[in-house]
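ARCHIVE CARD
CATEGORY: sequence design from structure
SOURCE FIELD: tokenized fold
FIELD CONTENT:
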């Protein structure tokens, strides 16, 4: 195969589709491609009880250095697509609990949490490795709330700084056969 053909195929390989299998129950999952290129969805937890999750309105955005404050968040909002408050809070809390404070994703793994009719997610965006940590998630979800509205479907990603490509973070309505990573940027609205 010629080099030019390989370069044309590279973006397709980097934007793998991750379709949630039919009737996937509530829980926390990671998804990746195995050695044969097959999509794997692995359940890794049950999550917190809905009443015990931290509400989005109670999240305090961590402070970052001036350098990080100057970087720009890209957002996409599902204006008019309201989400159940308890399910959204629980899905976000599950994801933050699973990812933890200092996770460097170098294994091409995406994470998602399904709670009721909501899926919260963290996807790699065409990067060989990325940084994902609970503080980044907190900032991303705070940005979604500020730009899209309370409990409105949305996606956020911090503009790349050249060192690592931040993950794409968001939440949306869960439906059977949802491709959450590809659908993350389906809206052309940056705010509502």
């Amino acid at each position: 195969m010629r080099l030019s053909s390989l370069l044309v195929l590279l973006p397709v390989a980097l934007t793998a589709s991750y379709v949630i299998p039919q009737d996937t129950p509530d829980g926390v999952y990671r998804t990746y491609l195995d050695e044969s290129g097959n999509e794997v969805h692995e359940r890794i937890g049950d999550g917190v009880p809905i009443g015990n999750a931290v509400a989005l309105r109670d999240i305090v955005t961590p402070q970052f250095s001036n350098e990080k404050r100057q970087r720009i968040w890209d957002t996409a909002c599902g204006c008019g697509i309201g989400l159940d408050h308890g399910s959204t809070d629980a899905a976000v809390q599950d994801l933050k609990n699973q990812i933890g404070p200092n996770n460097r994703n170098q294994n091409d793994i995406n994470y998602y949490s399904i709670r009721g009719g909501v899926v919260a997610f963290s996807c790699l965006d065409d990067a060989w490795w990325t940084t994902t940590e609970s503080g980044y998630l907190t900032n991303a979800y705070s940005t979604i709330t500020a730009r899209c509205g309370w409990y409105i479907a949305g996606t956020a990603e911090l503009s790349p700084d050249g060192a690592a490509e931040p993950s794409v973070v968001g939440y949306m309505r869960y439906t059977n056969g949802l491709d959450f990573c590809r659908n993350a940027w389906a809206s052309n609205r940056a705010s509502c």
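CARD ANNOTATION: Residues 17-183 form one domain. The longest strand covers residues 73-82.
SHELF: design records, drawer C
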